[in-house]
Structure formats: structure tokens, C-alpha cells
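Final report, closing paragraph on structural work. Over the funding period we assembled a curated collection of sequence-structure pairs, and we close with a single example.
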Amino acid sequence: MNSENEQIIDYKRYIISSQGTFLHSELNALLFNSDRSVYEVIRIIDGIALFLEDHYARLVSSIQMSGFHFAMDFSEFRHNVMELGRLNHIENGNVKFFLAEFGKENLWSFSFIPHSYPDTNDYELGVNTEFLFAERENPNAKITQNIVREKANQLIADQNLYEVLFVDRDGLITEGSRSNVFFVKGNRFFTAPAYQVLVGITRQKVLQCLSELAFPIIEEAVLASEISTFDAVFLTGTSPKVLPVRSIGKQVFNTQLLVVNELMNQYNSMIDNYITAH
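Its predicted structure, as stored:
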């Protein structure tokens, strides 16, 4: 898998948490090993937390659906993200907010995490994916599900993939392990409806871009058995943005479809406008 600015964990970096501010090497590992947790990953570009308001709103929704007790308003949340960047002298990367429940105690943290951004070749040639027959317990909440994540990570590593796409018990393609997925036929864009997936922030922005471009949107999951009938496939997510898919297993797709390129340009312009405004 090709990647740009691929990172490993730097234990000299600072973390901001409910337990105080400290170096990553001093982190209590228990905080990141809870099976009952929610999280949010935010991309920082040129010191700006991209679409932070949307990430916070989704986090609040995940917390409410999970039954957690947590009080941090948006201004405090934003301050912690910005302070984390200042402490670590980092203007580009991914920040993870993590909230775990242990008995009656809630522990939270903000930390920079390793990221792997696609490079120019990935955007031009596309990336390789494969199916994984698995389902999220609650797709609408960004909850840590270790068993599903471990299966996905293992398949990605074993086959040198960029991503795996979940297929449910009805043979429908819902989403990727870390991304949402769109299929393209002509100028029509297909993606699974919101109730079947974790509604990614990038997915929301892509739907907005497609509406601005006046391309038809069909919120309908695609059958795994029918992927050969589509012209193109792409992933959306915090790190990949809008990323063409070269293959799903042995099925190969067009990675230079004009309508997808128009969408990529529209989304990149949206990012530029957000950064300028903030």
C-alpha cells in the first residue's frame, strides 16, 4: 500500500486527557483497551481542524446512543484540539478523541495518532480492496468494536490492501472498515443509506458536493454480486478524502472517470474554502 506521510507513534508527543497532560509514553494503557468506548478522528490541515463542528455533532450523537455520561461543550472541545497541536508543534495530522467508561468513571483523551494519507499514485491509479463478511453492531455510532476491527486489519495486512468493504448477511455492501464507499454508473452515484452505515463527515460533505454538481444520488446499498455492472468505485474518509478504488478482489474499475474527477475537485475546493474561512 502506497502512502504519503506515513507515521508511527511518537512517544515524545503530548496527550491531553481527563487525567491531565502528559507524554504518550506515560499513558495509562487501560484507557485505550476498553471494549466500551466511543471515538472521533479529526484531520488537521495547516493548523485547522477540518469540519470540527460536524465531528463534534457526530461525537455527541455517538455518546447519546451509547448511553455515556459526558459533558464537554464545543468551545472546550475545540480548545483541547487546538492546544494539542500547539503543545506538539504539529499543523498536519490526525487527532483522535477517545472516551472510555470504566464502571462509573469516564476517561477521555485527545492525542495525535499515526496516519497514512494516499499519495498521488493512489489518487490516479486507485487502491485495492476486498470484501469482508461482517456487520457493525450499531453502525450509526462511532463505537470501538475490537473483533470486527481486528478481522479487517488482518485481511488488509494479509492481502496488502488499502481497505476492506463490509458485506452484510443479505449480500449488501455497506461501508469500509474506516471509510464509506460509493459506486458510480454513468453519472449516478450509489451509496448505502444512513441507517446502514456510520455516517462519515466526509460522506456528508461528498453528498453536498454531488448535490452542488447536480449529479443524481441513489442512497441504496449495492449487492456484492452486482459490482461488475458499475463503472467506478471510490472511498470517502478523514484520511483518504475522495479516493478511487482500482479493484475489489479481481474486479477492476475505471479510476479516471470524469464525473469522479469533478467530484474530487469540488471536494478539495470545499476543504480549501473551509481552511480559508477558519
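The first helix runs from residue 52 to 66. The radius of gyration is 19 Å. We thank the funder for supporting this effort.
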